[in-house]
Amino acid sequence: MTVTVRLPNVLRPRAGDQPKLDVDLAPDATLTDLLDVLAHRHPALERRLRDEQGALRRYVNFFIDGEECRQLQGKDTRLRAGAEIQIIPSVAGG
Amino acid sequence: MTQEVLVAIGTRKGLFLASGDGWKVTGPHHPMTDVYAVAIDTRREKPRVLAGVTSEHWGPSVAVSDDLGQTWEEPDHAPVAFPEDTGATLGRVWQLAPGPADQPDVVYAGTEPSALFRSTDGGRTFELVRGLWDHPHRKDWFPGFGGQAVHSVIPHPSDADHVTVAMSTGGVYRTTDGGATFHPSNSGIKAYFLPDPFPEYGQCVHKIAQHPSRPDRFYAQNHHGVYRSDDGGTTWKSIADGLPSDFGFPIVVHPHDPDTVYTFPLVADGHRFPPDGRCRVYRSRDAGETWEALDNGLPKTPYWTTILRDAMCVDNADPAGVYFGSRSGDVYGSRDGGDTWVRIAENLPDVLSIRAAVV
Q: Which domain of life is it from (chain A) (predicted)?
């Protein structure tokens, strides 16, 4: 199945200046599986989304078909074919 | 002819670079990152600037520039990262320290949580030094207000196997076998906040400095206490007499004179302001036996800000330069060893780190 990742402007240089990435995944893949693929394809992007132990960075939001993943099953949330994962930095800092 | 000096100023919201006549300031480089660590590696034909940058959103990284900050490079993979088996994650890099002159590609990083990393490619990628991470004392190190971090890393100038680190809390540790083993090195340094005020380890050392031409000479600014060691850190003696307070964060040693040392005292742990609200650097020219206040060119109006542990430095010019930056974003420099000062920058974000070198 294929899912689509939409990137904020600030992260696009870490993924070849692309605003969106279409990623092929196995059926029933999770957000973690998606990020594992990105770790190989675009490591400079992935390391800004997760720490070295695989935890989602605290101030990065992952909206899966419009719902933030922490309202679902977090990084274990299963993705559907055609899902859209929108990555948006949260409100943080001063 | 005056030597061209670059001053790299790490702040809460990016890196600023000052150079040239009248101190032209550029930046922010790496905007909206906190820059706890900055280094200017002068062992190369063209000095390399290294910056430990941490974004609240995107995490920590290390960036390097080989054109004095005009362009920057970062590796695709995290340059400093804890191995999976440690279960630890990098908070931020607190210190970047070029290695000895005969190992021009060796650079060390001190981190939060307290760990030492070593690079053999000039600071692009680093590996964890296991000897410190696996130390049995690690379970007893605990964070101070600023976090639990290795904030000082001092490679011996000629012995590549010899590195001294300091952390808050934990104190000073040394390796003489290339990082395989580390030994505490705090004899004489007080930890007033512990039941045993002179423990083997556990001190809250705020910063240490070593003189490159006399590597057994160290100075330490402690969480209350200012010390000198003349035996490579094996023993320490107080040199706080003559200072208005023994509390403060930075301590730096003159690049050409191991007896000349600078600090910026604050009243006390519970009252972290310059004594009498006066902006004054204190200098000793006799290894801490006596101290003098320096304020020629510094603000005469009430000064209630703080100089953090890495926000004071010297350069390698002759005569030597001394620089410091404050939490209120002003930066001062002296090109004559502290006798006279000028303002280099003002209204920057909080200054976290500063380094200067002839370029």
A: Bacteria
pLDDT tens, B275-298?
Answer: 999 999 999 999 999 999 999 999
Write the class of the CATH domain B5-358: mainly beta
Contact assignment for A93 to B56 by CB distance below 8 Å = yes
Mutate to test the interface with A, among B55, B57, B128 (most CBs of A within 10 A): B57
- The enclosing domain of A12 has a CATH number of 3.10.20.30
Per residue in A62-72, pLDDT tens? Answer: 999 999 999 99
A47 touches chain B (CB under 8 A): yes
- Going by C-alpha positions, the residue among A78, A92, A64, A66 that lies closest to residue A25 is A78
Q: Minimal Cα–Cα distance from B223 to chain A, Å?
A: 29
Q: Is A9 on the interface with B (CB under 8 A)?
A: no
DSSP B136-197: GGGGG---BTTBSEEEEEEE-SS-TT-EEEEEETBEEEEESSTTS--EE--BT---TTSSSS
Report ipTM for this prediction.
0.95
Q: What is the DSSP letter of B88?
A: -
